[in-house]
Design a protein that fits this description.
This protein has a single domain (8-88), classed as lambda repressor-like DNA-binding domains (434 Repressor (Amino-terminal Domain)). It contains six helices and no strands. It has helices at 3-6, 11-33, 38-45, 49-56, 64-73, 78-88. It starts with a helix and ends with a helix. The protein is mainly α and 89 residues long. The longest helix is centred in the N-terminal third of the chain and has 23 residues, at 11-33. The protein is globular, with a radius of gyration of 13 Å.
């Protein structure tokens, strides 16, 4: 039994969660690769450290839109974001 089974997610819901987790992982990877703290990321995004932390763990309060916008703001390319999405699909 995996998490999708345990949570009784539909196939589409499970796919959505996987996409969101992949983007959150990419955000964390981008932050660590640049040796930024969550507070530094938050300042770059005009947000709070707690919000940056929530994005990195794909918190349910964070939707895909701000997650993708944050990645692009921090220097991720559209191609890079696309690769992450394609790999998670």
């Amino acid at each position: 039994m995996d998490a999708a089974d345990f949570l009784e997610l539909t196939e589409k819901e499970a796919a959505f969660v996987e996409l969101k987790l992949a983007l959150a992982d990419y955000l964390r990877e981008l932050r660590t690769r640049n040796s930024w703290t969550q507070s530094q990321v938050a300042r770059r995004l005009g947000s709070s450290q707690s919000r940056a932390a929530k994005m990195e763990v794909a918190d349910s309060s964070v939707s895909l839109d701000p997650l993708i916008k944050s990645l692009l703001t921090l220097g991720a390319s559209r191609r890079g974001v696309g690769r992450v999405l394609a790999k998670a699909a």
